[in-house]
Amino acid sequence: MNAGTRHARLPWQFEQHTRYMVMGDSLGSGYGAIPQTRGYAYQLYQGGVVDQVSHTLFCNASVIGATSADVLAYQVPLANVFQPTVVTLTVGGNDLAKILENRDPEFVQAVLPEFRSNLNRILTGLVDELGAAVYISNLYVIDKIPGTADIIPIFNQIVADVADSFAVPVADIYLPFLKGRDLLLIERHGASPQETHPTNAGHTAIARAFAEVMENNRLPEEKG
Questions:
Q1: Is residue 6 part of a domain?
Q2: Domain span holding position 138
Q3: Structural domains counted in the chain
Q4: Least enclosed by CB within 10 Å: which of 1, 33, 40, 74?
């Protein structure tokens, strides 16, 4: 897989452009960044990480609050319309939120396989059916919210397993957020105890994680 082609192309011949689509939840939408267009996906686009800006068509389909079921039901059909060549995907945080609200073991055991199934069907649509180069992130831990340290590694293992079955690279945002400081709004003085979104620095950390896997998975001719 590769993050986009970098061959010389004329800026008005849009049919030859890399078609970059951002899918998933509030992370893709830039929620938490000020301005919101400093979100991770905008950094990748504007920084020419996916491809040169003049050779990229950008579409952000991410929706605040979207679960894996929402991505499957609403965003994958939009991908069929846009026909992306490159996709970055952040999903699972709102599936996790459902567990944090209801920790009954039977409910937890229902959410996890549903997330796995949804993610499998999402990647089937994007990779197998559309042939897009997809990059997905794992989930970051939120120390100030009890229970996340235990359940997030389970989500991340599901992401790793499903992504591996489609040869989809995973951008690791778990470790940077585990070790970093001032990456989450919840860490700010006076922040809501439920404010789990990244700061500008957090979005930059996410952008760096995606940029790293994109660079590592470019074709040799693209690295030049």
A1: no
A2: 17-215
A3: 1
A4: 74
